[in-house]
């Protein structure tokens, strides 16, 4: 498998969204930047915030689109084209309604699964990138989804999500070095405490 050269976190820009469930992908990338001392700065050319650094021996770029979720492709697509990042060398971290808080899954390929951020990326880059799906739980009915993803989780759920993200972070070496299958086995076996 190709080594990862780009890790993207999906979310919405701005302080009012920073702690909302829809920003789970942002949280993952922000923790990577913190752990590996990578400076994230505004990258207006690509409608995002980006950084570059050494992660476990690999040269990896980080990207947080600042276009709002539904327009994520406006940032990710030109970024990938400019830096010649193949889909197989990209990981996109995003929130996942169909999994409970504390559940985290790594998968490669597939459709957008109704996720608006992915819906805006897949038609342009194809489906063959890796996805880190961070469970945020489902509110129970379709009508309540928007309010759910744009609200803050109670602290009990937040700590489950944080622990799951930390677990994935501890497997980053496998991920960036292209050992996707082993990373998948270890990340997907995670059980919340």
**Count, helices:** 8
What series of H and E elements makes up the topology?
EHEEEHEEHHEHHHH
Question: Which bin fits the share of residues in helices?
Answer: 25-40%
Q: Could you please say which CATH topology applies here? A: Rossmann fold
**Average pLDDT figure:** 96
From the alpha carbons, calculate the radius of gyration and give it in angstroms.
15 Å
- Provide the low-confidence segments as ranges: none
Shape: globular
Strand content: 15-25%
The name of the CATH superfamily reads: Peptidyl-tRNA hydrolase
The overall number of domains is 1
Order of strands across the main sheet: 2-3-4-1-5-7-6
Number-wise, the strands total 7
Distance between the termini: 31 Å
Instruction: Profile the largest sheet.
Output: 7 strands, mixed
Report on the architecture of this protein.
The chain has one domain (6-188): 3-Layer(aba) Sandwich (Rossmann fold). It is 34% helix and 21% strand. The chain has eight helices and seven strands, in the order βαβββαββααβαααα. It has a seven-stranded mixed β-sheet with strand order 2-3-4-1-5-7-6, with helices on both faces. Helix 1 (24-36) crosses helix 6 (155-169). It is globular, with a radius of gyration of 15 Å. The termini are far apart. The mean pLDDT is 96.
What descriptive keywords fit this protein?
globular; 8 helices; 193 residues; seven-stranded mixed β-sheet; alpha/beta
A few lines on this structure:
This protein is of the alpha/beta class and 193 residues long. The protein has helices at residues 24-36, 73-82, 116-119, 122-125, 145-149, 155-169, 172-176, 180-188; strands at residues 6-9, 41-43, 48-55, 58-65, 90-96, 104-108, 130-135.
